[in-house]
Every structure is written in C-alpha cells, then in structure tokens.
Amino acid sequence: MKLEVRNISVGSLVGSSVPFVVFVLALLGGVITFFIVPNPQFGLMSFGQKVLSVGLYALLYTVIATAVLVFAAFVYNVMTGVLGLRGVSFDIEEIHQD
Question: What is the pLDDT of residues 25-62, one digit of tens each?
Fold first, then answer.
C-alpha cells in the first residue's frame, strides 16, 4: 500500500507531544551546557542561577523549535497544496500474522 502525506495540520503539530519532547531534550541540553561541561563563563554562577538558566534555555529552545516546525509544516503545505508538488510517500507492506 502506498501512502502520501499531502497536508500537515499545524494545530495537531502544536497540540501534540512534540513540544513536550523538545522541552525534555532542551532540559537535557541545558543541564549538559550549564552543569556538566566546564565553561569559565558559568563558573561564577550560583546553583540557583544555573537552574534558572536551564529552565529559561529549555523554554526558549522549545518556543523557537516549535516555531521552526510550524513554519516548515506551513511551507510543506504550500508546496503540496498550492503548487501541486508531490508529498512524502510511504510504501507500506502489510504483514499477515498466522
């Protein structure tokens, strides 16, 4: 069976678990950036300042990454819907279980 994605719903993209997954990955990246990797710029920061920095970093990263994903979905919808270009197609093979 061949399936083709012709439209990506922006509302379902924002309302799904994608921003939460991006937030968790951004938290991990913030912890690595501010706590694990030695950087002389962050050496004078207290523990509370580092925790606040990790939270703000994760929040800002989530907002920016979600905005980029929404923009990419919008461009994809314009290319496939308005211009009539082909969408991403998947060739799915059905497996019958005995």
Answer: 999 999 999 999 888 888 889 999 999 999 999 999 99
| Contact (CB, 8 A) for 1 and 94 | yes
pTM: 0.80
Phi and psi at 44, nearest 5°, equal: -90, -5
Residue type, 96: H
Nearest Cα neighbor of 77 from 16, 2, 13, 9 is 9
85-95 burial code (b ≥16 CB/10 A, e <16): eeeeeeeeeee
Q: DSSP string of 49-80?
A: HHHHHHHHHHHHHHHHHHHHHHHHHHHHHIII
Cβ(91)–Cβ(2) below 8 Å = yes
